[in-house]
From TrEMBL:
UniProt KW keywords: Methyltransferase, Transferase
Keyword Ubl conjugation carried by entry: no
Name used for this protein in its record: Methyltransferase domain-containing protein
Keyword Ribosomal protein part of the UniProt annotation: no
Organism: Pannonibacter tanglangensis
Length: 289
């Protein structure tokens, strides 16, 4: 057992003030190498695959046959294609501003033979291509921290209010900003022990660019909905999920696909996924199994 967590907690508790935000240098991820590196982290066995399984089951529990679902900042589509394959009777639209990401997502969807997912070049902070109350559900994973500033985050939430049905389902997962630089470096150092330098650097940039739980709480108020809550991982808000409650467990097809994929994870990745489940469960977010 390492002393990482107690050290991080100590720094978080003693930080005098909130760490300032440093926006991502690459807001839209369109470099060919960037896309390739990022996409490979989402392959089976990659560092992002466990979080994708987690998000995929959470989203699956919030959709129903016939629904129209929008993914904000879908990236290379690895997560959205996974969700689409688990929920063939639901229609998904992935939005991103990076054409190279979108091309990668479309190619993979085609390889998988998916007919229920399309990809659209669109700014998710505006959602101009979507009409009033068009979506039954809106989801996002690790993308909101790519917005340049707080004003864009507010615009994004206003767009959600316009496009999402009044009682539509919401699942927005992202990193949360820590209070202290030392805690960020402890968590990045933990990742650096097993992952590539590029991924560790990407993780560091994400943690510095993340919005705070307070930022999210204020935006949730903008939604004017009592049923949307913010859940943050305990000990440190490394992960935050703003969501509606799942009406029940995910459908059997999604549950079976999740359990199959989970069994195939290495012991290390399975432990990471279990930790994510535990830390968010202790933050109030149940897992819909
Ligand atoms: C870190 S990736 C996350 C991708 C995917 N959701 C996942 O979970 O792996 C963030 C994505 O958001 C996209 N992005 C950033 N700002 C955007 C905006 N304003 N509108 C649409 N996409 C945006 C980037 O191009 C990038 O593909």
């Amino acid at each position: 057992m390492t002393l990482d967590l107690p050290r991080a907690v100590f720094h978080e508790m003693t930080a005098r003030q909130q760490l300032p935000r440093t926006p991502e240098t690459e807001l839209v991820m369109n470099g060919v190498q960037t896309v390739e590196d990022y996409s490979s982290c989402g392959e089976e066995g990659g560092a992002l695959f466990g979080p994708y399984l987690y998000n995929a089951l959470q989203v699956s529990a919030r959709v129903a046959p016939g629904n129209q679902v929008i993914d904000l900042g879908c990236g290379s589509g690895r997560l959205l294609n996974l969700i689409a394959s688990w929920n063939p009777e639901v229609s998904f639209v992935g939005t991103d501003l990076a054409p190279v990401m979108l091309e990668t997502a479309r190619r993979q969807a085609e390889l998988l033979g998916l007919r229920n997912v399309t990809y659209l070049e669109a700014d998710f902070s505006r959602l101009d291509d979507f009409g009033l109350h068009e979506a039954d559900a809106i989801m996002s994973s690790m993308a909101l921290h790519h917005l340049p500033d707080r004003v864009s985050l507010s615009r994004c939430f206003s767009s959600i209010v316009r496009v999402l049905k009044p009682s539509g389902q919401l699942y927005l997962m992202d990193f949360g900003r820590l209070r202290s630089r030392q805690a960020v470096e402890i968590f990045v150092g933990k990742v650096a022990r097993t992952e590539t330098p590029a991924l560790s650097q990407d993780y560091r940039a994400s943690l510095y660019a993340a919005f705070t739980p307070d930022d999210f709480d204020q935006e949730i108020l903008r939604l004017g909905r009592m049923d949307v809550a913010l859940h943050r991982s305990v000990i440190a808000p490394l992960l935050m999920v703003a969501c509606t409650p799942a009406p029940g467990p995910a459908g059997q097809r999604a549950v079976n696909a999740f359990l199959r994929a989970q069994r195939q994870l290495s012991a290390h990745r399975r432990a990471e996924l279990a930790q994510m489940r535990l830390f968010l469960r202790l933050g109030g977010l149940g897992f819909p199994l």
